[in-house]
Amino acid sequence: MNFNLKEAIEVLERTPQSLSYFLTGLSEGWLRCNEGDETWNAIEVVEHLIEGEKNNWIQRLELILSDGSNKTFPPYDRFAHLNNEINVPLEEKLQEFSILRAQNISKLKKLVTPEQHLELLGTHPVFGSVKLREVISTWVAHDLTHIAQIIRVMAKRYGTDVGPWIEYLSILKK
Amino acid sequence: MNFNLKEAIEVLERTPQSLSYFLTGLSEGWLRCNEGDETWNAIEVVEHLIEGEKNNWIQRLELILSDGSNKTFPPYDRFAHLNNEINVPLEEKLQEFSILRAQNISKLKKLVTPEQHLELLGTHPVFGSVKLREVISTWVAHDLTHIAQIIRVMAKRYGTDVGPWIEYLSILKK
């Protein structure tokens, strides 16, 4: 096991600001490109990250730590953000993500005492029994997955432009 | 073709600061993890990006734009950074990368007039004839490849920790 709460929070607290710095001011060509039908562009990924802050991670942790007997996570719609208001500028979305994330990290620190809570169990509707520390680890890995997705989508925009160098750039072939 | 110089520079100028924000202050566990023997950790990737600023991208563009008749790129050692001084703190390396990148973007803007230069040719020792715009496109895609690499390496550190969620996180299986 590599997980520890302090290191997990290091990543969680860096994601919004790193994405803000990287994405703010980019041309529409970078922000709107995707990998084809049914795939997300950078803006849609940010919206999905916001959705997770609103309706997923902290709710699951709170449920595991609650006194209730039923600890089955309610269904989570991974595509809910695709119905969002689309006219909000990206800068405002990034700002919203930053604020929600800061609030959730603050809640996380208050909720979880590592020595007591990491092995507590909840029930995932598909996976069955999962540990609190697995939820937090997944929160971190989910951030990293979606940062990598944004970067990959942007790189692939230059898949043809790099000419023969595509041989050396495996990201463009994924 | 998606390449245009202004948009390419948008990415090139964001990479150092984004990496600085993301990596500065991370625990050694995040900074030193890799994908096994002969693979790079985040610090080694930053060193590799520095090497490219010193000895690759601008030199190739200058050669293409030079008056000489031989425009064959000199060999470039992609592993040169692995012999570097290892006791320099990461913050100093990130600072060096930022300074070199800013200088090189400044040179790029002075060197290249898009209307005149994008189709000019150089000779790659393996690929043969390559266009100036392909060199710049590759510089951008190379940044994105290595940002994605850092993110992927870090994500895989939690490959076991996420428990059953590995099914949903394809980055962990790469």
Automatic annotation (TrEMBL), chains A, B:
Highest taxon in the source lineage: Bacteria
Coiled coil: none
Matches recorded under InterPro entries: DinB-like, DinB/YfiT-like
SUPFAM superfamilies for the chain: DinB/YfiT-like putative metalloenzymes (SSF109854)
Regions crossing the membrane: none
Domain spans labelled DinB-like: 12-150
Record protein name field: DinB family protein
Protein source organism: Cytobacillus praedii
Classification of source organism: Bacteria, Bacillati, Bacillota, Bacilli, Bacillales
